[in-house]
Amino acid sequence: MRVFRRTRLLAATGIAVTALALTACEDGTGARVESKPSGTTTPSATAPSAATASAKPTTARPSGAPEGTRQAPEPTRNAPESADPGRSAGSGSGSGSGSGSGSDDGPVRTICNGSNTTVTAQPVPRPLNHMLLTVTNTGSRPCNLMYYPVLRFDEMQWVPQARPETKPQAVPTLAPGESGYAGVLLSSADGSGDGGTTARKLTVSFQGGTPNSDGGASATPPLPSEGVYYDSSLSVTYWQSSMEDALN
Hints:
alpha+beta; 5-stranded mixed beta sheet; 3-stranded mixed beta sheet; 12 strands; globular
């Protein structure tokens, strides 16, 4: 019986010790305080984390600048400008049709030659020993009479020269139906020329864009039935826009 009482006393004592230990662990608010290993520091709830601190942008101050000066942001790069400042998007210009209807630069012009003109050769009473060449544009486009006519009577082996004082200020341009002219000195009035002969055939050749270049088809205007007399004085004028200039 005594042994049983001792056992009950020891059990009651253990329960009381345990309750005392639990009461000592309370922080007075009813919350249980967990014990932590020594040396462990609890991070403050208000301190920023390392990741947050590194993400915060900073503004660099240029070297030598006074305190409080902020470096200007780098300017935004614009798209590269066009290599041609005169060109802009959406701009453009019309082009000529090439049919002689005209463009910003005027109507399309070709070179007058035997394929788009008719040519006549007619001796005139004044000045003496002269002949008049008349070229009429029979095409559908304006054409230019370049330089001077290249004449060949029969099978002659030399080319009559043009008189330089007759060179016009501008190249004659013939609209469809218009005519241009050139004067031909056949022989000297004082008989100073030599090698005179009578020709039965005349070939008129045309020059191109550069002197003595081929301007296209030639023409063979008919001569009077009695022929045309010429000598070494034979020469021509440049093409003219008027008959008066050609025979002056």
